[in-house]
Amino acid sequence: MGTGIASILLHNLPYNAIWLYWLSVIIFCLNVVLFISFFAISVVRYTMFPGIFTAMIQHPAQSLFMGTFPMGLATIINMIVFVCVPSWGQGAVILAWSLWWIDVAVALASCFYLPFIIIYVHKSDLSTMTAAWLLPIVATIVAAASGGIVAEVLPNPQHALWTIITSYVLWGTGFPMAMIVLTIYFHRLTVHHLPPREVIVSVFLPLGPLGQGSFALMQLGKVALRVFPPTNAFQMEDMGKIFYAVGHLASLIIWGFGLVWFFFALASVSRSKFPFNMGWWGFTFPIGVYAVATCTLAEHLPSAFFRNLGTIFSVAVVLLWAGIATETARRAYTGQIFFAPCVQGYERDVAAKMVEKRQGSVTAENPGSA
């Protein structure tokens, strides 16, 4: 997600240059390699040790990160539209649309199932809650935003209409739920104060649904303005204009709400000394999608203020990505960065079963010992 948003920001930077474009392409290719590699590793891992997947799903914290899979795929889909479609034409459009439907299915599964696991399986305590609860929910908002980008290049207006309507439904499944979680999270902060320093970076995660939710409404409204009239959607001549106007009004309000959480996040991390861990990647994507919303506002208003602010946000995210990626690579080489909490429980279960099996074997061989 962090690598993908860095490539998108460089590609869409308000003040751009040809070398920035090629840099975005290089990071995009790196993102594809990382995604395929990690996906293949995960498949091998869960195939060889099937019990780890169950342990991961039942873990109250690690299971939430399943939502990052469709969000990471969405960044690749977006860059396929930005980079590959102009060069490869219709084949790239079909690829992007096909991948988007896969992304939709996985995002819906994440948004529906994982929050239910929190309700049904986990014994949650308000004091231990973090903004990571947003991760499985935000997946559908990200898919909705990607749907708006894909719909813009679909040559068939009817296909574009299906994509737009699906994207609005996806936005409706994710954004209101995200607001509910933000309410609970704000209550948690006021009652139990800041999260532990190990997970303090999670205070930036609320920028994810707000930034992507704002961008999604602008992008979908922009495409609806073009697609609704020829398809006679909703059987009203000006319905596209209504969606466009309401979407931009709502997106501006949501962007303003994001400023509040941005301030909370900056104030929180400024009062904490926290060690480097994989949680630092929580800096990149939330701020990145908020930067995307800012740059999109600059394009549609138009506004030099939002253009300059979007550029500052974008450059900051790319620099953060470069620093965090460098430190992650260094610690990955030494093995210091790898830690899977669910594996500890899995290993304990396996050890307990082996002990029970040995005891059963001893009892069977020596019935009198019982």
UniProtKB/TrEMBL annotation:
Keywords: Cell membrane, Membrane, Transmembrane, Transmembrane helix, Transport. It is found in: Cell membrane. It is a multi-pass membrane protein. Its main location: membrane. It holds the Pfam family SLAC1. It comes from the Eukaryota. Belongs to the tellurite-resistance/dicarboxylate transporter (TDT) family. Sulphite efflux pump required for the secretion of sulphite as a reducing agent. In the presence of sulphite, cystine in keratin is directly cleaved to cysteine and S-sulphocysteine, and thereby, reduced proteins become accessible to hydrolysis by a variety of secreted endo- and exoproteases. Excretion of sulphite mediated by an efflux pump also represents a detoxification pathway for dermatophytes during infection of the epidermal stratum corneum, hair and nails, which are rich in cysteine. This is Sulfite efflux pump SSU1. It comes from Knufia fluminis.
